[in-house]
Every structure is written in structure tokens, then in C-alpha cells.
Amino acid sequence: MTTRLPSLIVWVVLALAHPVAAPALDFDLRLDRLSEAFQLLPETDRGTVDEVLAMLKKGDHQEALRRLNMLNQTNPENSSLRVLTAYGLLQVGNLLGAFDEARKAERASNGNAYKCWFLSKVALINGDTMACRRELGHVKDSKDKGLRQEVKQVEEQLKKRRG
Of 34, 42, 50, 141, whose CB count within 10 A is highest? Predict the structure, then answer.
């Protein structure tokens, strides 16, 4: 037992000295791509979305998520609210919650191919390369050509994962 303890201590010290890099969580939301589903919200909720966006920009993620939770209760099928919620969850480090919200966004009947691209990015961050590839395929199959550069970037990140 005493011979293992020093090994454990050495391992912990080495792990702290050389932390494993976390996946890059920084990527800009394309708010222009979310506007389509935001237009389906009642006017009062659109004002709240503006407030949530300001909170996210300031880094007040917890309050933004609290408000998004309320918005999602009254608008459960709004893909853009789900994307925004997933983004907020990523910012606080809740990768699985973000993945769940991104899947809800993708399943919603409104929105555009951006919700599939967003899910591909969150799937990649969570290590689900199959879901990432599937969603990139949905974006490529869509008539929406406005996401070509973003798709290429995620494909490059996928290649790095393999390599």
C-alpha cells in the first residue's frame, strides 16, 4: 500500500502540471442564422431574448440560462431558443446538457440548417463523431449554402481527432 501511495502522488502532481487540454468551446453564434425561429416568438419573448443575449455577452450565463429555461417552457419547440440554451450550457461547462439541448433544436420543426451545424459542433465537443458526421451531412444535403466555411472547419477538426 505504501509503495502505491507515492506513485499516486506522482501521478496527481504530473497531471496537475500537464493538464489535458479541454475541447475548444469558443465559437461564435451566428445570430443571423437564429433570427428565423426567433421571429416565431411572441413580441414579449423576443424582448427577453434580447436581454438574454446581452447577459451572455456580459458573461452572466447563469441568469441567462434561468431566463432561457422559462422561455423554453412556453416555447418548447423553438429551435433557436434551444440553440441559445445549448450555447449557454457550453459556456458553463455542461457539455451533456448542451448536447441534449442541441438535439432538441435539431428535432424542432422550425429553423434552418444552422441547427444541424450547431449540433454537429456540440457532438464533436462531446466526442460523438458519428453524430457530428451525420449532422454535417444534413447541412451539406440542404439547399443552404451559407454554412460552407463552417462545415469545412468542423471537418478539419474531425480530421484532427482521427490523426
Answer: 34
In 3D space, the residue among 75, 74, 100 whose CA is nearest the CA of residue 89 turns out to be: 100
- Could you tell me which residues come within 8 angstroms of residue 118 by beta carbon, excluding any fewer than 6 positions away? 83, 86, 102, 105, 106
Output the pTM of the full model.
Answer: 0.83
Interatomic CA distance for residues 139 and 17, integer angstroms = 41
Interval 33-46: pLDDT, tens: 999 999 999 999 99
Spell out the CATH class of 29-162.
Answer: mainly alpha
Q: In this structure, what C-alpha cell is assigned to residue 10?
A: 506522482
